[in-house]
Write a structure and sequence with these properties.
The structure is a homodimer.
Chain A (H helix, E strand, L loop, with lengths): L7 E5 L3 H12 L3 E5 L3 H9 L5 E3 L4 H6 L2 E4 L3 H11 L8 E4 L5 H10 L4 E2 L2 E4 L19 E4 L7 H14 L3 E4 L2 H25 L11 H7 L6 H10 L1 H23 L3 H20 L1
Parallel strand pairs in A: 1-2, 1-4, 2-3, 4-5, 5-6, 8-9
Antiparallel strand pairs in A: 7-8
Helix pairs in contact in A: 4-5, 7-10
Chain lengths: 284, 284
Amino acid sequence: MQLDTTKTYLIVGLGLLGGKYAQVLSQKGFTVTGITHSDATLQYALENGYICRGATRDFEELVRQADCLIFGLYPTTLLDWVQEYGALIKPGAFITDVSGVKRGVVEPVQAAVPQAEFIASHPMAGRETSGISHSAEVNFAPANFIITPTDRNTPEGIEWCHALAETLGFARITQLTPAEHDRMIGYVSQLCHAIAVCLMCASDNTELACYTGDSFRDLTRIARINDKMWAELFLWNKDNLISEIDMFTESLLNMREKLVQDDREGLEEMFRLSTARRAAFDKK
Amino acid sequence: MQLDTTKTYLIVGLGLLGGKYAQVLSQKGFTVTGITHSDATLQYALENGYICRGATRDFEELVRQADCLIFGLYPTTLLDWVQEYGALIKPGAFITDVSGVKRGVVEPVQAAVPQAEFIASHPMAGRETSGISHSAEVNFAPANFIITPTDRNTPEGIEWCHALAETLGFARITQLTPAEHDRMIGYVSQLCHAIAVCLMCASDNTELACYTGDSFRDLTRIARINDKMWAELFLWNKDNLISEIDMFTESLLNMREKLVQDDREGLEEMFRLSTARRAAFDKK
């Protein structure tokens, strides 16, 4: 399926990802409009041709005219927004989002816009940076795009979301349920960020910076983190994340015990297991 | 100071790093000999011109003839070796090693070879690979080289070790006491390896490999680990490593509690702290 380029796309929230969506869709000939709370962001989006029209307030007409909407908002802001403005959305419009958590978002948004179709999705293309001025650096090609449909979605809606992802340049597009998505993201992304942050918070060892090699730098790169967004993501998925933290802590205390006991064979066994499992992650 | 190229260098242990030392020193015109327990390694070292002579046993003459010795052995093997063969070493010879832990090694080796001078050092250029066939891939230029002298070392010995590091291509050469070294390495290297290994051991999530992005891959790259060597390194430095694990676990449990309490502000504070501290590691 090819997306219909005569449709008007409204991007609500012109941050790192919303900005990138706007940029790519404009380049590909779509009519792209935008809503943001920031005058500077609006200015940037207009001047760089990411959108043809936009507003920071009094944006009701932009909402009514849109055939397709993309929410580039934090989850809590997204929920507030659809409560307040969801009724303005055109009947039959296709809507998606970019949220990094799904269970708490998908059903409430679908319930708030019953006249349109919300097909939730997660472009796993986040970076340490944020804001539209970094959008141009985002690369969708190697990233995963996850569609998380529910039984309120139609084959047409899911197909539209798939075609949108292809148009944006994603090569790896898959489907998960919202629950599967949140469990997966708790492990492959949130636990890793929790670990990196805690490693930096554990002690002030910045005087050791001159001795750090690749392993330390790789492990802590993601400790540079957007505080507001990640607090949102962690709290919306806290049950999964707490459970992952508990499994990880148990493993670490297990290793600690082997150290205390001078259990060389036990340590070697852990190293062999981690080596074997990590190899599976290299193949894909 | 320039190293004297008329001297004979004996490399005891032709693994990843010992092999690389042999390769570079031979290229630079030194007479390099080698001892290894493996016939295949000896063959490889001779065929590739890493050494001009070598042996897997009956190597007493090689030891007696060497002006300078480099131990590319695991710590426990190194201690056994000097007990058995240390007396063969030429009086006045300069000796160094490549061990990743220092406190348990330096004084016993110095005591075992009182007729020569052991100046301990640690080339922080390890990789996930091991063995002489991967030596050519090792790059010393960006790595740290740490010399850990004691009061049994002379200015001449330390200067020799410094000149050796320069000859090998290290650009960043520093000195620490053995205790400072082990505390530093417990944090910047061993704790990171412990975390990566435990993340892989915590649960068998290899079915999630297709969803992993850069953050997960970066965090777990070092979970592919040489089991024998790392069990050695962990156990020789277990007091420091356990203390680092405890500080890290406390930080992680602190984050867990903030999740349980829905403490958004507390989470954001941790994220801001980690972001600020990590920035210091980018500058160096």
